[in-house]
UniProtKB/TrEMBL annotation, chain A:
Protein name as catalogued: Geranylgeranyl transferase type-2 subunit beta
Domain Prenyltransferase alpha-alpha toroid stretches: 54-347
Cofactor descriptive note: Binds 1 zinc ion per subunit.
GO MF annotation: an example: Rab geranylgeranyltransferase activity
Automatic annotation (TrEMBL), chain B:
Protein family (similarity comment): Belongs to the protein prenyltransferase subunit alpha family.
Gene3D superfamilies hit by this protein: Protein prenylyltransferase
Protein source organism: Cymbomonas tetramitiformis
Lineage, top ranks: Eukaryota, Viridiplantae, Chlorophyta, Pyramimonadophyceae, Pyramimonadales
Sample GO molecular function, one term: protein farnesyltransferase activity
Cellular component GO terms, alphabetical: CAAX-protein geranylgeranyltransferase complex; protein farnesyltransferase complex
Domain of life: Eukaryota
Keyword Repressor among record annotations: no
Record's protein name: Protein farnesyltransferase/geranylgeranyltransferase type-1 subunit alpha
UniProt-listed InterPro entries: Prenyl_trans_a
Length: 361, 312
């Protein structure tokens, strides 16, 4: 679901600089080899107004085949989340069958530890972030039968603290992101009764700020990513009454900048991934229509790489799988034609959420 | 520094390294450097026998230098420090260097918290200074702010904390993190004398001054609204006076218009006003929102929703 728990240069929310190639101008780090057929296809679809679906699908399929690229090596510690972004995007595009299902499922099960948690890659330490990604992947493939839900749920429940918060792993970083991961995971596994949900939502409420937003821990600054996790956790835990919907809705709606994209905090640049965090939060509090969907759609489409496929954080930066997924998911929430609908709370295709019996009434 | 392989260092000659077991068919090929592979092999050997020694402590440095996010490495280092009763002040020196080089690494901040928590209040001031240094380079670093709040709360350094955000706001009036810190200090200071409700008039003055410097600064306006402390906006005269004053010089200031509209909307709904007064407020707020639709067309649907809600 989220970028990373680690990496000295990695941003908490959006990969900045290294790793996923973000913020690197397109073409500066990767050799571009335009192909005649590609250019011909491009000219028939205008990327300024159209989502070039087939290019994005090809881009994602290719990512997993090019195992010697810089991006592949640099992101090995979060491979589990990378797989989740990739297959979710493919599912929304209606191209899930193009992914190597058997290889992915055996990778996922190999990353599980005896404690129940999953690592970001084989032999990596377990963490809530990757445990959620693993559960999401299994849910999309409808193969939760491959794992023992009680074992995973016990691992997740064991990370709840006295004050209701959740640590990301046994070493104890506390963050509303982890509350979201825990509740989403347990909800998908139908094991919510293993934790103190009321205390969990009260901790999230304590992270609320005067501007209507939420931070990572009580006192921390409001931040669009943290707001997604806080509101998502409250939505799953039945605590949305802790949200001042009009005040928060206004703060979120102010995130839209003249270029049409949304930023994560005041005075920051717009970014495709923040567009998703803000948009999904607005959707969860029934205020989606407050921003200009048309302008946001234009912004996301302008971040497509028309030659190689993939979506970047901002126009003309290098594409990565993280922004490709959140770009497509954002367009899906905006009702873009011919995309599967995405659920704003679980960041999963709506049909997956319905199959799990988790749809909102 | 040139890396001397552990296998060639005399102090490690008695240790048999434990290689990573990837199984017969690893799906994912991970290209670790050979140095990293060797360091980890020796580290696994040390952990297996729970050796807490000076050389084990040195080895965790090698692990951390190659993977600063290794919770395993950091945690084992802390276990060694405790078991050996090591000099934690020396440890702070090591951490200071790392904090400045890798200010976004959560594990370093977490480790500082353990060390300073153990050393006690005497070391709280230098801890504040480390965050000051980091924030001077990146005034929005989320970890540094969070760590600073921990130090302030744990050791009760509220007065200096307020001065600090005053200074940061003076340097950059749009620093949203500093405004958030200001609210944190004034509302979570407990029975500290600087409690938001008691100093509200001063805060209104302070914030109004900053708004005058940059009327389009969302952070200051949000903080300003937060000074209502949950009470009605219309109960505080400044919430009408300040936006009105700003609009005289900047008639298209959408943040001023929206606050003023919110105040009039409250009045239009108020039970304590006469029908005439309510009618005036109602007409006025309608006018303001229509003006906002012109100035801020991107949020047209939001402003229309507001107009609709008042009608209902
Ligand atoms: Zn981003």
């Amino acid at each position: 679901m989220f970028v990373t728990k680690e990496g000295e240069d990695a941003g908490r929310w959006c990969p900045d600089g290294r790793g996923l190639g973000t913020h690197i101008p397109r073409g500066s780090a990767r050799a571009e080899e335009p192909q005649a057929s590609t250019i011909a296809e491009t000219s028939s679809l205008d990327p300024a107004t159209t989502l070039i679906c087939h290019k994005h699908a090809d881009y994602i399929v290719a990512l997993d085949k090019e195992k010697d690229t810089f991006e592949y090596v640099a992101t090995e510690h979060l491979r589990m989340s990378g797989v989740y972004w990739g297959i979710s995007a493919m599912d929304l595009l209606g191209r899930l069958d193009d992914m190597n299902k058997d290889e992915i499922l055996s990778f996922v099960t190999e990353c599980q530890h005896p404690c129940g948690g999953f690592g970001g890659n084989i032999k990596h330490d377990p963490h809530l972030l990757y445990t959620l990604s693993a559960v999401q992947i299994l849910a999309i493939y409808d193969r939760l039968d491959l794992v023992d839900p009680n074992l995973i749920a016990t691992y997740v429940a064991g990370l709840q603290q006295e004050d209701g918060s959740f640590a990301g792993d046994e070493w104890g970083e506390i963050d509303t992101r982890f509350t979201y991961c825990a509740l989403s995971c347990l909800s998908i596994l139908h094991k919510m009764e293993l934790v103190d949900v009321k205390k969990a939502t009260e901790f999230v409420a304590a992270c609320g700020n005067f501007d209507g937003g939420f931070g990572a821990t009580p006192g921390d600054e409001s931040h669009a990513g943290q707001i997604f996790t806080a509101v998502g956790a409250l939505a799953i835990g039945g605590g949305l009454s802790h949200v001042d919907k009009d005040l928060l809705g206004w703060w979120l709606c102010e995130r839209q900048v003249p270029a049409g994209g949304l930023n994560g905090r005041p005075e920051k640049l717009p970014d495709v991934c923040y567009s998703w965090w803000v948009l999904s939060s607005l959707s969860m509090i029934d205020r989606l229509s407050w921003i200009s969907g048309e302008k946001l759609q234009e912004f996301i489409l302008s971040c497509q790489d028309p030659e190689n496929g993939g979506i970047s954080d901002r126009p003309d930066d290098m594409a990565d799988v993280f922004h490709t997924f959140f770009g497509i998911a954002g367009l899906s929430l905006l009702g873009y034609p011919n995309l599967k609908a995405v659920d704003p709370i679980y960041a999963l295709p709506v049909d997956t959420v319905a199959r799990l019996g988790l749809s909102r009434i | 520094m040139v890396y001397v392989p552990l296998s060639e260092r005399p102090e490690w000659s008695d240790v048999v390294p434990v290689p990573q077991n990837d199984g017969p068919n690893p799906i994912v090929l991970i290209d670790y450097s050979s140095e990293f592979v060797e360091v980890m092999s020796y580290f696994r050997a040390i952990v297996a026998v729970k050796e807490h020694s000076p050389r084990a402590l040195e080895l965790t440095k090698e692990v951390i230098a190659r993977n600063g996010a290794s919770v395993f490495g950091w945690n084992y280092r802390w276990c060694c420090l405790l078991a050996m009763g090591a000099d934690l002040i020396e440890e702070l020196g090591y951490l200071n260097d790392l904090s400045e080089r890798f200010p976004k690494n959560y594990q370093i901040w977490q480790h500082r918290r353990l060390v300073v928590g153990k050393l006690g209040a005497k070391y709280s001031q230098p801890e504040i200074e480390v965050t000051t240094k980091v924030l001077a380079n990146d005034c929005k670093n989320y970890h540094a702010w969070s760590h600073r709040q921990w130090v302030v709360r744990t050791f009760g350094l509220w007065d200096a904390a307020l001065e600090f955000c005053t200074e940061l706001i003076r340097q950059d009036v749009r620093n949203n993190s500093a405004w958030n810190e200001r609210h944190f200090v004034l509302t979570r200071g407990g029975d500290n004398k600087a409690n938001l409700e008691q100093v509200r008039d001063l805060e209104i003055e302070f914030t109004a001054d900053k708004i005058r410097l940059a009327p389009d600064n969302e952070s200051a306006w949000n903080y300003f609204r937060g000074l209502a402390c949950g009470k009605l906006l219309s109960s505080v005269p400044a919430f009408k006076q300040v936006p009105t004053e700003i609009l005289e010089s900047v008639p298209e200031c959408s943040l001023a218009l929206s606050l003023l509209a919110d105040v009039f909307e409250e009045e239009a709904r108020s039970d304590s006003l006469t029908e005439d007064q309510k009618g005036f407020a109602r007409a006025h707020v309608q006018e303001l929102w229509e003006q906002l639709i012109q100035i801020d067309p991107m949020r047209t649907r939001y402003w229309c929703w507001r107009i609709q809600m008042l009608k209902e």
